[in-house]
Write a structure and sequence with these properties.
heterodimer; A: about 525 residues; mainly alpha; two-stranded antiparallel sheet; about 75% helix; globular; B: about 120 residues; elongated
Chain lengths: ~525, ~120
């Protein structure tokens, strides 16, 4: 009976998304409570899925009672359970963050819950067309959330994202169409058995190419990443925290699902060019994303390009398709979600308390906001891959997988990516802790700290401190509470603690990996 | 080549319409025309699915006591219906964003917009 949790994972947030809109008839700021209840329920359901999968079960639910190849199937296995858990945890964290951070409008929570439902749908569906529908629900909710910030640039960023995102989804559906024409089915497991034997047929190869390019666009791999830095930079800080942790993550998960479950490792053996194409795509993304991150001056933009690089790493891991690298890919997918979400949330707090938006603004903040700066340091170092942390664990498994597969160029790029990550994280840490005291625009910022960052009214203070000119910056969170700092602190603790549970991840993925690599 | 076009003209049309839509999205500086290009692109995908469902001499897939096969494949039709709904909502969101952009910047031209935003 546990399989009932799968449809509930999708249905609860989507139904709850209606409530804030209805409540708007009477009150304007009750949406938060609906979101809090819904995400708490989601966390409970995700825990059920995770524990069942951890015990070796593979949850399968046929929607509407129609059996598998004809109806839509929802699947909870070793690949989807960690992603489901990540979505649930990050949603709870973001809702907690938004309590004082805002936005508190009801419409925001409708889009937010719709996005949670879409993300859960992509993660648990076992049907390719159903995956397209959930990808588009995710997309629509994300465009709305990016544009939810009242600044004028967010609308432009959202439209750019919408056009490119729709193109990516359309490429995906064309690929699904080719696969459907070749096999006559849309169920992932059924597809994998019917594709066997015709891997080198042209429609199948075209299908793979269209699907990977389409999802690569959604996951923001270089050179298809152009929508992503603008969307992350100009969305409000709370929204960036949420979408940076999850939206590209599920697109990368979808690529993993398509490679491992639909096309399977046998496809890569029959068409080695396909594997090399994806590996090249991914490794170029790692290097280009890292290099672009190093040269950014704005912190949010730097983290955005860092995501381009990290998702390249994840996709490279799945394209290597060895048991070690797939394990590493899943670990890094989950780890990146936590680390990047935490980093954006910490950046949001620093922006609100000190008006710090660029790397130079971070000068000596390590002494003014020691806790939040400490969180940035811990999460940044985890992103580099310093043990003990989940960032190290993921990169370690990916590197081991690359070495065991004899893919030396990929192993080298994984190493280089660590250096590049270190380059931009070190720049940030150097500013935070070792900047010379004159570099810090001192006096007025102390005032900003003292009253919790609400300096918008004091135009004089803002004029005196050019670095903290966030008076017109609508992206900034409303105010900072101890609870918000606790949320980012917990993210840092979780990232470090998960560095010790590698046997846990191995147990979780063992049945799935056993199925993929017979 | 001629024979291919004569027998597979529906797929050729799909590729032509898709390429036209793609070109409009890339080449047109006008934001509304970009969205029209996006719609064209999506319509091409719908056409592709409908063409794939066609069975020569097939009747609509409504099973009754009188009608005997062959039927056209109903599954792609269902897919296209869903995809149309998705496409309409995307267009609605895109147009809403364009209205906001026009209100704030007073232009729909991508080049002008880029100059204004960079200032």
């Amino acid at each position: 009976m546990t399989d009932v949790v799968l449809p509930l994972l999708i249905a609860v947030p989507i139904l709850a998304a209606v409530a804030p809109l209805l409540l708007s008839l009477r009150t304007s700021e009750t949406g938060w409570y609906v979101a809090a209840v819904a995400t708490a329920v989601e966390a409970g359901l995700a825990a059920v899925v995770l524990s069942a999968v951890y015990d070796g079960a593979r949850l399968v639910h046929a929607v509407g009672g129609y059996p598998a190849p004809y109806g839509i199937e929802l699947v909870g296995d070793g690949l989807s359970a960690p992603v489901v858990a990540l979505i649930a945890v990050v949603s709870v964290g973001v809702v907690a963050f938004a309590y004082t951070g805002g936005p508190r409008r009801n419409s925001f929570y409708s889009a937010f819950l719709l996005l949670v439902g879409g993300l859960m749908g992509v993660s648990v569906t076992g049907d390719l067309f159903n995956m397209f529908v959930f990808l588009e629900i995710t997309g629509l909710a994300t465009y709305a959330l990016v544009a939810a910030d009242r600044s004028d640039r967010s609308a432009v960023a959202a439209l750019k994202y919408l056009i490119l995102g729709t193109m990516g989804a359309s490429f995906f559906i064309i690929g699904v169409g080719y696969a459907f024409i070749s096999t006559g089915t849309l169920n992932m497991v059924d597809l994998s058995s019917r594709l066997a034997g015709q891997y080198t047929a042209r429609p199948v190869l075209a299908s793979f190419a269209f699907i990977v390019v389409g999802l690569g666009l959604k996951a923001a791999l270089f050179p298809l990443h152009t929508w992503q830095p603008d969307a992350y930079t100009y969305a409000s800080d709370t929204v960036t925290t949420f979408i940076s942790a999850l939206v590209s993550t599920v697109a990368a998960y979808a690529i993993a699902r398509v490679i491992l479950t639909v096309f399977t490792v046998a496809f890569f053996e029959a068409a080695p060019l396909a594997r090399w194409a994806v590996l090249t795509f991914a490794t170029v993304s790692i290097l280009a994303g890292g290099l672009l991150a190093v040269v950014q001056s704005e912190v949010k933009r730097m983290f955005a390009y860092s995501s381009v690089s990290q998702f390249g790493l994840v996709i490279a891991a799945f394209a290597l398709a060895t048991p070690d690298s797939v394990l590493g890919g899943v670990v890094h997918l989950v780890g990146h979600g936590l680390m990047k979400g935490g980093l954006f949330a910490a950046a949001a707090i620093l922006a609100a308390t000190h008006g710090a938006r660029t790397v130079d603004d971070y000068a000596r903040l390590g002494y003014r906001s020691p806790v939040v700066a400490g969180v940035v340091a811990v999460l940044g170092l985890a992103l580099v891959g310093i043990p003990p942390s989940i960032g190290f664990l993921g990169k370690y498994y990916i590197a081991v997988g690359a070495v065991r597969a004899g893919a030396w160029p990929v192993a080298l790029v994984v190493f280089l990516s660590t250096l590049l990550t270190l380059a931009y994280v070190a720049r940030l840490l150097e500013r935070l802790y070792f900047a010379s005291p004159d570099a810090a625009p001192a006096p007025s910022l102390d005032a900003a700290l003292a009253d919790g960052g609400e300096t918008e009214g004091e135009s004089g203070a803002d004029a005196a401190a050019p670095a903290s000119s966030n008076a017109g910056d609508t992206r900034t969170v409303r105010s900072v509470s101890v609870g918000m700092i606790a949320v980012v602190g917990l993210a840092a603790v979780a990232v470090v603690a998960l560095g010790f549970v590698s046997p846990g991840f191995e147990t979780l993925l063992e049945p799935f990996l056993g199925g993929v690599f017979p | 080549m001629i024979e291919l076009l004569a027998t597979r003209w529906a797929y050729a049309t799909f590729v032509f319409v898709m390429a036209t839509g793609l070109y409009m999205m890339i080449a047109s500086p006008n934001l509304v025309k970009k969205v029209i290009g996006l719609n064209l692109f999506q319509s091409a995908v719908f056409l592709f699915f409908i063409a794939s469902a066609y069975v020569a001499g097939g009747s609509p897939a409504i099973v009754s006591s009188e009608s005997t096969g062959p039927y056209v494949s109903p599954l792609p039709h269902v897919i296209v219906l869903t995809a149309i709904v998705v496409g309409v909502s995307l267009t609605a969101v895109a147009l809403a964003l364009i209205v906001r952009i026009y209100r704030e910047y007073g232009t729909l031209d991508e080049g002008v917009l880029r100059e204004v935003v960079d200032d």
